[in-house]
């Protein structure tokens, strides 16, 4: 009996350790969680005294029968299904352990061991109303912040376009300010000094406070009108790139033309201000190109002819002649070949002597260009020998004839004299000096071959 009781007690302990899902009893429905669990009953059984072993055994037997019924109904005590149930529980436990182990810190440690870069974590703001992450614009490192075009159009005032009404209001204020400046100029001529603000206001017929306000409003209106049309200056300057001036100079000249158009514009012109300013800007840019694009300035009509020649060459190429000759270009441009050659020779761009010949070396054109003013060493030696032979040849003549030849051809001082001047020196007539010269030259010609002066014929001719 005691063995049976110990067997039942061990069975109760085994049932307490097992965990079962909710079961359905035959004809009773699901087992309510409010009912007392088996392990609580087991605890109560363990609390009985030893003398009530028979009662304890009976209760254990009832519990075992109840557990057998539960297992038979749910088929969990089957030999084929019970191990699968245990294995699934073990697999779930392993997956839970793997999930807890594979954290972000574990991945970072593995990436450090492999030498890989750390994963980039994107942080999103939770207070975004649209639910989308905020995209921040990053400035590209390739953009040059010192770009002249970027600095020229810096500021929001250069991106605001003006309506016709705003332009007319600004122009009226500018006209009033210009009239006040004219009054000031007249006062300077009248007083021969700088007028005071009171004198200036009295001459204009307004108070000094109104004078200051009108001057300030005119200045601000002028700046606003100029800034609103700076993009037109950029548009015109880009059309004239590659003609001898860089973009900065073209923008500067175009801005000067824009400021001049503000002073010259009249509301009675019958057009808007940008239409009027366009011509002033283009004229200023073209004038700057004519004056500063070349070292040797060319007249404006030459630039017109050059543009005509370029158009003619482009037309010849479009017609199929890939390499047009000067005759083809001249006929297409409507000019003669000689005029075309003179035009092309006049517009040649001069080179600096200090400019390097090759990009990878420091050799300049000055170092490799020969100086024509300096004679070659062989030529200078040949001339010195020829002078010595000529002096030796003059010894054949008489002293009087030798002196006449020296004076006549400037041997010695390099200043040849006329027959009359030589006659005054010797007290002879002009005809007599000519006769003596002719006779001396004949003697020299007779002795020319004897002294070997034929070797210098290359120097004389």
Automatic annotation (TrEMBL):
Residue intervals of the RNA polymerase sigma-70 domain: 249-262, 418-444
Keywords assigned by UniProt, alphabetized: Chloroplast, DNA-binding, Plastid, Sigma factor, Transcription, Transcription regulation
InterPro entries: RNA_pol_sigma-70_dom (IPR014284), RNA_pol_sigma70 (IPR000943), RNA_pol_sigma70_r2 (IPR007627), RNA_pol_sigma70_r3 (IPR007624), RNA_pol_sigma70_r4 (IPR007630), RNA_pol_sigma_r2 (IPR013325), RNA_pol_sigma_r3/r4-like (IPR013324), RNA_pol_sigma_SigB/C/D/F (IPR016262)
Cellular compartment(s): Plastid, Chloroplast
Principal place of residence: plastid
Region (Disordered): 108-137
Pfam families: Sigma70_r2, Sigma70_r3, Sigma70_r4
UniProt xrefs under NCBIfam families: sigma70-ECF
Family: Belongs to the sigma-70 factor family.
Reported function: Sigma factors are initiation factors that promote the attachment of plastid-encoded RNA polymerase (PEP) to specific initiation sites and are then released.
Name of this protein: RNA polymerase sigma factor
Protein source organism: Solanum pennellii (Tomato)
Gene: LOC107031229
């Amino acid at each position: 009996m005691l063995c049976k009781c110990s067997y039942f007690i061990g069975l109760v302990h085994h049932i307490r350790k097992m965990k079962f899902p909710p079961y359905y009893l035959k004809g009773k429905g699901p087992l309510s969680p409010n009912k007392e669990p088996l392990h609580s009953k087991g605890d109560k059984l363990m609390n009985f005294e030893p003398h009530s072993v028979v009662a304890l055994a009976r209760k254990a037997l009832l519990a075992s029968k109840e557990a057998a019924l539960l297992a038979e109904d749910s088929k969990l005590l089957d030999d084929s299904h019970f191990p699968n149930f245990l294995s699934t529980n073990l697999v779930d436990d392993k997956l839970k352990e793997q999930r807890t182990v594979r954290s972000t810190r574990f991945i970072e440690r593995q990436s450090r061991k492999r030498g890989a870069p750390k994963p980039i974590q994107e942080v999103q703001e939770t207070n975004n109303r649209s639910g989308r992450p905020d995209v921040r614009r990053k400035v590209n490192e390739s953009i040059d912040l010192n770009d002249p075009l970027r600095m020229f159009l810096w500021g929001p005032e250069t991106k605001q376009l003006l309506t016709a009404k705003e332009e007319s209001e600004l122009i009226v204020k500018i006209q009033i300010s210009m009239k006040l400046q004219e009054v000031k100029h007249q006062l300077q001529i009248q007083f021969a000094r700088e007028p005071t603000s009171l004198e200036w206001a009295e001459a204009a017929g307004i108070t000094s406070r109104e004078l200051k306000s009108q001057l300030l409003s005119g200045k601000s209106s002028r700046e606003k009108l100029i800034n609103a049309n700076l993009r037109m200056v950029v548009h015109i300057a880009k059309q004239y790139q590659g003609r001898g001036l860089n973009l900065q100079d073209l923008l500067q000249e175009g801005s000067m033309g824009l400021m001049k158009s503000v002073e010259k514009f009249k509301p009675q012109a019958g057009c808007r201000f940008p239409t009027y300013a366009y011509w002033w800007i283009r004229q200023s840019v073209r004038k700057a190109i004519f004056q500063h694009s070349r070292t040797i300035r060319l007249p404006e009509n030459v630039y017109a002819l050059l543009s005509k020649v370029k158009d003619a060459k482009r037309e010849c190429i479009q017609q199929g002649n890939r390499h047009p000759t000067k005759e083809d270009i001249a006929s297409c441009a409507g000019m003669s070949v000689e005029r075309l050659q003179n035009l092309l020779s006049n517009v040649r761009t001069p080179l600096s002597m200090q400019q390097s010949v090759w990009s990878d070396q420091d050799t300049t054109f000055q170092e490799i260009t020969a100086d024509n003013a300096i004679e070659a060493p062989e030529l200078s030696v040949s001339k010195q020998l020829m002078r010595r032979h000529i002096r030796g040849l003059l010894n054949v003549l008489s002293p009087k004839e030798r002196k006449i030849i020296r004076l006549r051809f400037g041997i010695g001082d390099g200043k040849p004299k006329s027959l009359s001047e030589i006659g005054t020196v010797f007290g002879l007539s002009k005809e007599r000096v000519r006769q003596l010269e002719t006779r001396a030259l004949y003697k020299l010609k007779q002795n020319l071959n004897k002294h070997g002066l034929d070797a210098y014929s290359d120097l004389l001719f």
